[in-house]
Amino acid sequence: MKYVKTVELLAMAALLLLFGITSLLVVTQGAQAYERIFEKREKASDVRVALSFLAMHIRHADEKDALSIESTEYGDCLRLSDGDDVNRVYLYKGWLMESFSNNSSAFDPELGDQLVRLDNLSFYMDKGMLHLLAIRKDYSRSLSLSLRAD
């Protein structure tokens, strides 16, 4: 009788332990899945915000000779001119940056405002179209805009 109770107690303890380990594994897997989904959505959001920001500024500045790609020692930047004011959008140290200045000021990327994290940003003009590519980790998205004032 005592032996049967001991076996039952051990079997119950083993089942409880198995249930506890299984529960822990399920919670851990769920947390990892949540982190992967959150990271993927964050990357996609960063890229969408960057391209939306660029599209809005480009459409606003779409006038003759107001939009150009400027090569600097820090890389290419999108130069949006409005009279004596210049707005530059560029990638610097993993951030999409925006800098406001006047035509006579020297360009200093450190003075810009950080907008959103990006790993790569490229743009080029071809036959009245401006092509943009934004990359954040393993997520990328491109955008092509037809320039009216070309």
Structure description:
There is one protein chain. The chain is an alpha+beta fold. 39% of the residues lie in helices and 39% in strands. It contains one helix and eight strands, in the order H-E-E-E-E-E-E-E-E. The strands form two sheets. It has a five-stranded antiparallel β-sheet with strand order 1-2-3-4-5, with helices on one face. A three-stranded antiparallel β-sheet has the order 6-7-8. Strand 6 (120-126) and strand 7 form a beta hairpin. The radius of gyration is 27 Å and the shape is rod-shaped. The model has no long low-confidence stretch (mean pLDDT 88).
Beginning-to-end CA distance, first to last residue: 95 Å
Number of strands: 8
Strand order of the largest sheet: 1-2-3-4-5
Principal-axes shape call = rod-shaped
Radius of gyration: 27 Å
User: What percent of the residues sit in helical stretches (DSSP H or I)?
Assistant: 25-40%
Quaternary structure of the protein: single chain
Poorly predicted tracts of residues: none
Mean pLDDT: 88
Per DSSP, the total helix count is 1
How much of the sequence lies in strands comes to: 35-45%
**Sheet with most strands:** 5 strands, antiparallel
SSE pattern: HEEEEEEEE
Helix/strand class:
alpha+beta
What's the SSE blueprint?
Blueprint: H1 2-60, E1 67-72, E2 75-82, E3 85-92, E4 95-102, E5 113-117, E6 120-126, E7 129-136, E8 139-146
What are the salient characteristics of this protein?
5-stranded antiparallel beta sheet; 150 residues; 8 strands; alpha+beta; rod-shaped; 3-stranded antiparallel beta sheet
Brief sketch in words of this structure:
It is built from one helix and eight strands, in the order αββββββββ. The chain is α+β, with helices and mostly antiparallel strands.
